[in-house]
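tool=predict chain=A
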Amino acid sequence: MTKLPSIGKPATNALHSIGITTLEQISLLDRANLSKLHGVGPKAISILEKSLAEHKLFFQDSPKDTSLPKSDFTVLCSLNCDNAPKRRMIRDYIVAAASGNQYLLESMLSDSFRCIIPNKKAIEDKNTFIAMLLKEKIEIGSLDIQSILTHGKEGAAHGIITTKAGAKIYFSIIIRFKSNQKDALISEITSFVIQ
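tool=predict ok
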């Protein structure tokens, strides 16, 4: 593993805050996504690009999947999911929920939506759930979706949200879709969060 080059304290701290400490990890990211990380500016990206080339490594191409919801934070995830529609939908749901994209959330959740958060009363209405997400929205520096699994009407994902202040929030969600169809809406989410 190759250590990061000297890119300045803000950029180094920003990368360390999301667990990136080597050039090999940098080579798994694309420039545009990395530049959203607070503290990583054009100079740091230029230095990283030069160092990557010296080690015969390169930034990833920007995702071809232009349907990825827009966000103002770095999203770490396998972004090219065209052969797995429900996997893509889970990824998009997580990004939409984190960024507070009300329109996308409304289009992804079924009218009979239900959210289960252990030790809390279940939310039995998608509009109440969306309002709660918008009310509890936080300033995010990065969203690291570590895995997404799907099978039939079910799916799951887990990852880490790093706030702009550097706090870590660990999450895991279990999702049920309304049917097995590839464009089925989300009918239920069970959510676990550790702050």
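Helices lie at 9-17, 23-26, 31-34, 42-54, 85-99, 102-108, 126-135. DSSP finds seven helices and six strands in the chain.
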